[in-house]
Specification:
By secondary structure, the chain is α+β, with helices and mostly antiparallel strands. The chain has two domains: 8-144 and 277-365, no CATH class; 163-237, Lipopolysaccharide (LPS) transport protein A like domain (lipopolysaccharide transport protein A fold). The protein contains ten helices and six strands. The protein has helices at 8-47, 53-89, 92-98, 103-141, 241-245, 256-268, 274-285, 289-296, 310-336, 342-365, and strands at residues 154-161, 164-172, 179-188, 194-207, 211-221, 226-235. A six-stranded antiparallel beta sheet has the order 1-2-3-4-5-6. A hairpin with a 2-residue loop joins β1 (154-161) and β2. α8 (289-296) runs parallel beside α10 (342-365). The model has no long low-confidence stretch (mean pLDDT 86). It is found in: Cell membrane. This is LPS export ABC transporter permease LptG. It is a multi-pass membrane protein. One of its GO terms (biological process) is lipopolysaccharide transport.
Length: 366
């Protein structure tokens, strides 16, 4: 065992205590928030024909991973304060310091558990949360009707072909396998006036410079006021696959490799990627906030409990932790419109509060 850690028995004792409190606080937060969320969403879910209890359970199964991911750092913060305040109240911190342990050695098992939680959180976000986000957003887009087979399905999309507009209720699939459903094509003149409207049940990509092949089409000519039907019709040659692929990128619903490919594609199309790059870096810095929380909440565990300042110290620890989340969100917002570079937007709050927490700990206890 390295000198940075206390004895093996004490390390296991503190880490186990900390872990159990993280789980308890997280379960409490997720349960309460899930119940409140269902109160607001149950009416919308049951309003869709055929929906019942099964769909409510499906919604809960998709929403719980989001809540776990979002509130895990808060749970680590609250668990830190509860753990250290309890140790301080029972004079266990005094006993450990009397045995020659420094404040950093007392916090070492908590920091180690924070590293483990950060690793689990990163894997959970990549493997579970991204899929839940994609599926839930696709389900919400169809107003809780049948869940699309492809979670990447996008609803109510439209594309420009010069003055013409191609609209579709949904867009599913990737690349040349992209399928548009409930399609409407508006052909407009130079003044923007509609000269022809074409509707089709389904559209597939017909190839470069060819456009999109609509099936079961109905065309309405504005000048003649005549309606014609055709089994197939090709329209919108200017709407390329790149325009369809890059219409909207949701960083919360894409894994790191997927988001990397989306950013590269946007760059090749001379599209702005600042916000997505900040989100890409935040996929690393976000989970690492679990390592930061024991340091920010450590102020609650030191100092004399009998001095009557334990509650004030706990409040200070909570204030430092919540201040980090406020600054982190503000930095991401600044990075999204170019105020900060993506790297600074994602990592500056982490290192800023790392130095703040370390300074507070050293100045008060070491």
């Amino acid at each position: 065992m390295l000198d940075f850690f206390p004895s093996r028995v004490l390390t296991v004792y503190l880490a186990k205590m900390f872990f159990m409190r993280i789980v308890a606080v997280l379960a409490m937060l997720v349960l309460v928030l899930m119940m409140l969320d269902l109160l607001g969403k149950t009416g919308d879910i049951l309003a869709a024909p055929g929906n019942g209890q099964g769909e409510l359970l499906t919604y809960a199964s998709l929403r719980v991973p989001q809540l776990v991911s979002r509130f895990l750092p808060y749970s680590v913060l609250l668990a830190t304060i509860i753990t250290l305040a309890g140790l301080n109240q029972n004079s266990e911190v005094i006993a450990m310091k009397a045995a020659g342990l420094s404040a950093h050695q007392i916090l070492a098992p908590l920091l180690l558990m924070g590293v483990i939680v950060a690793g689990v959180s990163f894997a959970f976000n990549e493997r579970v949360v991204t899929r839940a986000n994609a599926t839930l957003k696709a389900w919400e887009a169809v107003e809780y009707a049948a869940i699309p087979d492809d979670p990447a399905t996008r609803a109510n999309v439209y594309f420009n072909d010069g003055n013409d507009i191609l609209m579709a209720a949904t867009a599913a699939g990737r690349g040349a396998r992209t399928v548009l459903t409930d399609v409407t094509f508006y052909e407009r003149d130079a003044n923007g006036m509609i000269v022809r409207q074409v509707e089709g049940a389904r559209a597939t990509y017909a190839g470069a410079d060819a456009g999109w092949r609509l099936e079961d089409t109905t065309s309405f000519d504005v000048a003649t006021a005549q309606t014609t039907t055709a089994p197939a019709l090709t329209v919108a040659p200017g709407v390329e696959l790149g325009q369809v692929e890059l219409r909207r990128v949701d960083p919360d619903a894409e894994t790191l490799p997927q988001l990397s490919r989306s950013i590269q594609a946007l760059r090749s199309a001379d599209r702005r990627t600042t916000e997505l790059e900040a989100k890409w870096w935040h996929k690393f810095s976000g989970p690492l906030s679990a390592v930061l929380m024991p340091l920010l909440g450590a102020v609650a565990g030191f100092g004399l409990a009998r001095s009557g300042n334990l509650f004030i110290r706990a409040v200070i620890g909570m204030a430092l932790g919540f201040a980090y989340f406020v600054v982190d969100n503000a930095a991401l917002a600044m990075g999204s419109f170019g105020g900060y570079s993506p790297l600074i937007a994602a990592w500056a709050p982490f290192f800023l509060f790392l130095f703040v927490g370390e300074t507070v700990l050293v100045r008060t206890e070491e």
